[in-house]
Design goal:
The complex is a heterodimer of chains A (118) and B (107). In chain A, strand 5 and strand 6 (58-60) form a beta hairpin. Chain A contains no helices and eleven strands. Chain A is globular and about 40 Å long. Helices cover 0% and strands 54% of the residues of chain A. In chain B, strands 2, 4, 5, 6, 9, 10 and 11 form a seven-stranded mixed beta sheet that branches. A four-stranded antiparallel beta sheet of chain B has the order 1-3-8-7, with no helix packed on it. Chain B is globular, with a radius of gyration of 13 Å. The chains are: A mainly beta (118), B mainly beta (107). The A-B interface holds A 35, 44-47, 50, 59-62, 95, 99, 101-106, 108-111 and B 1, 32-34, 36, 38, 42-46, 49-50, 55, 87, 89, 91, 94-101.
Chain lengths: 118, 107
C-alpha cells in the first residue's frame, strides 16, 4: 500500500536551517508529482511547494520562496525540503503528499513537526 | 493566486443532521476541486475529488457538487465519526490554495 513517512523535524533557532525527508513506498515514486504542505498550530492547511516527476520543475508558495528548496531522489524514493532562514512563522507540522492531475492530493504522510523558537 | 472562500467557518450539528459546506473560488477552476476531512492530530483524508467523485472507501453519505467557481460538500446524515474539520482545495493552478476550513462540532 502507499506509504509516505516524513522525518527530520525538530526544534531549531530562528535563522537556522533544517532538512525534511519523506520516504515513499508502495508505488512508483518517479511517476508522481509530489508536494509539501504545512499546518501551523491551530491554523489551516497551507500548500508549500511542488516538484515534477523528473524534478526539473518546482513551484513555491510566496511565503517560502527563496528560503526553501524542494528536491527528490528517485533511486532513494525520497522527497526532501531544505529549509533555510527559518522564522517562527515556519513553525508547523509539515506533510508530504502525492499529487495527480485529476485527483489532487490523494495520499499524505503522517507529518513531521518543526518548531522555530529561541 | 486563486482565493478559496469556505463557509461557514464552524457549525454545530447533531447526529443525523444534513450538513452542507460551501467553497467559492475567485476564478473558474473547472472541476479541479477536492474536499478533505481532518481530525485532530491526524493527516487530512481525501473525501471527494474532481468536485463530485467519491474517493474509494469513503461512505456514500458524503457527496460533492458544483463546478466553475461554486462548490459544496454535503453530509446527508451526520455520524459521530464525522465531527472534524473539512477543507476544500483547488488544484487547477499553482499555488495550490485551500479554504480556511470548517469545523463541524457536536450540538
Amino acid at each position: 500500500q502507499v506509504q509516505l513517512v516524513e522525518s527530520g523535524g525538530g526544534l531549531v533557532r530562528p535563522g537556522g536551517s533544517l532538512r525534511l525527508s519523506c520516504a515513499a513506498s508502495g508505488f512508483r515514486f518517479s511517476e508522481y508529482y509530489m508536494s509539501w504542505m504545512r499546518q501551523a498550530p491551530g491554523k489551516g492547511l497551507e500548500w508549500v511547494s511542488y516538484i515534477s516527476r523528473s524534478g526539473s520543475s518546482t513551484y513555491y508558495a510566496d511565503s517560502v520562496k527563496g528560503r526553501f528548496t524542494i528536491s527528490r531522489d528517485s533511486a532513494q524514493k525520497s522527497l526532501y525540503l531544505e529549509m533555510n532562514s527559518l522564522t517562527d512563522e515556519d513553525t508547523a507540522v509539515y506533510y508530504c503528499a502525492r499529487e495527480t492531475v485529476t485527483v489532487g492530493f490523494e495520499y499524505w504522510g503522517q507529518g513531521t513537526r518543526v518548531t522555530v523558537s529561541s | 493566486a486563486i482565493q478559496m472562500t469556505q463557509s461557514p467557518s464552524s457549525l454545530s450539528a447533531s447526529v443525523g443532521d444534513r450538513v452542507t459546506i460551501t467553497c467559492r473560488a475567485s476564478q473558474d477552476i473547472g472541476n479541479d476541486l477536492a474536499w478533505y476531512q481532518q481530525k485532530s492530530g491526524k493527516a487530512p483524508r481525501l473525501l471527494i475529488y474532481a468536485a463530485s467523485s467519491l474517493q474509494s472507501g469513503v461512505p456514500s453519505r458524503f457527496s460533492g457538487s458544483g463546478s466553475g467557481t461554486d462548490f459544496a460538500l454535503t453530509i446527508s446524515s451526520l455520524q459521530p465519526e464525522d465531527f472534524a474539520t473539512y477543507y476544500c482545495l483547488q488544484h487547477y493552478l499553482y499555488p495550490r490554495t485551500l479554504g480556511q476550513g470548517t469545523k463541524v462540532e457536536f450540538k
